[in-house]
Specification:
The complex is a heterodimer of chains A (about 300) and B (about 270). Chain A is mostly helical and about 300 residues long. Chain A contains eleven helices and two strands, in the order H-H-H-H-E-E-H-H-H-H-H-H-H. Chain A has a two-stranded antiparallel sheet with strand order 1-2. In chain A, helix 2 packs antiparallel against helix 3. The longest helix of chain A has 29 residues. Chain B has about 270 residues and is an alpha/beta fold. Chain B has a domain of about 180 residues: Rossmann fold, CATH 3.40.50.300. In chain B, strand 4 and strand 5 form a beta hairpin. The longest helix of chain B is centred in the last third of the chain and has 18 residues. Chain B is globular, with a radius of gyration of 19 Å. The C terminus of chain B is likely disordered. The chains are: A mainly alpha (about 300), B alpha/beta (about 270). Chains A and B meet through helix 6 and helix 7 of A and helix 3, strand 6 and helix 4 of B. The complex binds adenosine-5'-diphosphate and magnesium ion. The site of magnesium ion has 4 residues of chain B, from helix 2.
Amino acid sequence: MEHLLEHIIIGLALGSVYSLVALGFVIIYKATKVVNFAQGELVMVGAYICFAFTVQAGLPFVASFLLTLIFSVILALAIERLALRPLIGEPIISVIMVTIGMSAVLKTLVQLFWGTTKKNFPEVLPDVTVKIGGLPLEIEYIAAFILALLLFVIFSLFFKYSRKGVAMRATAFDQLAAASMGIGIKNIFAMSWCIAAIVSCFGGVIVGVIQDINTDLGHVGLLVFPAVILGGLDSLLGAALGGLFIGVLQKVCEGAAHEYLGLGGFGNVASFLFLVVILMIKPYGLFGTEEIERV
Amino acid sequence: MNAAQQEKILRVENLEVVYNDVVLVLKGLSLAAEKGKITALLGANGAGKSTTLKAISGLLEGEDGEVTEGAVVYKDKAIHNTPPDKIVRSGIFQVMEGRRVFEDLTVEENLKCGAYTRPRSEYAGNLDKVYGYFPRLKERRKQLAGYMSGGEQQMLAIGRAIMASPKLLLLDEPSLGLAPLLVEEIFGIIKRFNEQEAVTILLVEQNARAALTIASQGYIMENGRIVLDGAAEELLGNPDVQEFYLGLSHGGERRSYRDVKHYRRRKRWLG
Ligand SMILES: Nc1ncnc2c1ncn2[C@@H]1O[C@H](COP(=O)(O)OP(=O)(O)O)[C@@H](O)[C@H]1O
Ligand SMILES: [Mg+2]
């Protein structure tokens, strides 16, 4: 294949955005057992808010990014408080349905404010290319990869060592037992939504810096789903690697289908075909926890 | 001087608890726990023992239960219907029935959860204390709690409680599913913890003999009410208790389980 290396490298950059979205999924799932189908829309909202601050309000990029982070956290807290907290104790499936409804609401709101045409971020990073394997690569791609890696390390350490992180894992395993430790369950839920919003916001801004944004950006949530299942739903490492893998798979399959079959848009199909295969051979994913069975 | 010795750190007064707005489980239950002592709460399956503990610890909230009448008074303050995290911070810690360890966390991470409400400065000292009482936990501190035996999980559940430096410890059937020798070991440690730390303990058990051996006071409940109470030795010597809860007939020999069950049922209908 002609451009294999190029496909792989672009796939890794795209995959790092997927990894961030997947991290958001996993963090909410880990603490609350909720599969958040609005994760992709949080990414989209992050991208548009940042666009509003940089382009429409004309603020410097760093300032708008910080404001976007704050906005995302407030949004996540509001969602948790207004839509999800009233559902504590209800069956998980109702909560999941609510997240699906929320994804539609968020998308509609964004279309209402910004329309459906493509938007462009200004050039944020200097126009530098770096040669990797003889291939000129824009610095944005490398920055995306490093940023995703950094966030992954930070949150892994958080869940492994910090008191709040361990409490979040305990809450995911057994809410009532966690409550008996004096862990405030509502705080834990709110915190998991905040963290998920923060990583999604990073994802959205990275997308904005790399390419145009439009209201289809929310679909990234669905595209990432294979990555999350592949990673095992509750493993941060799995989510990160799964995201990268899906990104590469998508780009390589897209390139191959285009080159050999003359087909366009095969990348998304490939990642879902892959999901079906993974679910058949290993329903817990490659890294997720299986129920411990004692004899 | 006697008044100081008999200070009741916890009083439960005419408590009524309803689940799901309809099921009345506690029907005017009253009991008290004396400061620094072990009080046993005994009764058959379904009597309402766990419900009583959850009403004290605030965990009813998570099970759609509610205190509709009466009061739980801890250190002279009414605490029923307070959220569980506040109650833990006030010094009450419940070790739930069935151990409820976090199976996919390590032993030490489980202990960290027990210390969640405590200042960081206490952590190292309390960890040493737990490992002092339960050396086996120290050997396995990096192991996932889910892979431990039932006895070790019970030790871990009590260890988590020790990490919380409680003033009042609520233990729900720590003997459940454990071999007799292990029950003896764990009850010995509970007694030691009670004496060394001057912690008040409310001990819920179906194993009446083991509980009354380490307790100073005992209550027996049936159907959401206290039906008998007294000093532990008194209860151990009471013929009714011997018959219905210790499995002895008046002659001192064991009756068949079937007879006991038969009696029990009849007694309920009469009561
Ligand atoms: N969450 C609940 N919802 C409805 N009923 C319950 C609930 N928990 C316990 N009960 C009922 O309350 C009664 C007492 O239960 P419990 O307090 O667990 O008794 P014990 O601990 O003495 O075995 C039982 O009849 C049980 O079925
Ligand atoms: Mg019980």
